[in-house]
Write a structure and sequence with these properties.
homodimer; mainly alpha; three-stranded antiparallel β-sheet; 3 strands; DNA-binding
Chain lengths: 149, 149
Amino acid sequence: MNTLSIGQLARACGLGIETIRFYEREGLLPPPQRTAAGYRKFSTDSVQRLNFIRRAKEVGFTLDEIRELLALHDDPHGERTRVKALTEAKLAQIERKILDLSRMRDVLAHLATECSGVGPVSSCPIIQALEQPPLTHQQTSQDSDEQHD
Amino acid sequence: MNTLSIGQLARACGLGIETIRFYEREGLLPPPQRTAAGYRKFSTDSVQRLNFIRRAKEVGFTLDEIRELLALHDDPHGERTRVKALTEAKLAQIERKILDLSRMRDVLAHLATECSGVGPVSSCPIIQALEQPPLTHQQTSQDSDEQHD
DNA sequence: CTTGACTCTGTACAAGACTACAGGGTTTAT
DNA sequence: ATAAACCCTGTAGTCTTGTACAGAGTCAAG
């Protein structure tokens, strides 16, 4: 028989049992077959599905987005346009986030070079810089993180 | 009198009243004076302190870290070394995060160009790529985000 | 004196992605 | 027959940074 218990599946994918049940509850995995005693019986396809989820997470998709990708994947009439749109939206979002972080990095790098690291905090240029009122309230991508698509 | 009610302070800093109370609970603001009726009376210094918090958040510090920066700021014997160390650790962390995101961006950009956006999902190169098992399980900075300092 | 604006405390909720029980039933090996 | 290892459901907790009440008290203006 080529079915897996939840524990076997978990080991095969390097995930926790609880995580798999969580994905099932969240609609990422279809409800599996059950044994007479109520134990889950996963087909070996489930390994691939969990790999899909993991890969998608690695490139930055949220579980909500992955649910939609999987639904497209499962739908014989699924539109490839939508997959591409999701990918491009995610790409744009990640690029925004990189820009935000780059700005932070520049400020921090500047602060780090300003400060000798010796002496009392009272005259520390880092602390002094932070005491200044924010010049402009720039929007961070925390604020604009939502997907507009 | 140069004291502020919580509402006045909130307006002066562009924060919500609840946020200020939250910061007080979290130990970022010292417990303010109170009126006879129990209303908070903030000194005008509080405006600067809240600006400090906001600036520090803008460059990526967490509230935990900001609490420590403020404690150093408040301590007449505070060591500037520590401020610099926190800054450099944050800088390194942000650089790691940028690298992670850059890897994701590269993969997504590649996927987006691969896919024509036309046709059924079944033959979509994005979906096919996601179906592949993860090559190496690379650590993302989600995992290594904690500060080692 | 009443209305409206303000403040107080304490608690609960939000998102996202899990993780951890508690209290049972099942299977397998000895 | 019994212990170990596995599985079930359902609920609750974790982390972070706030937000949102509910129910009550206070203050200023008309």
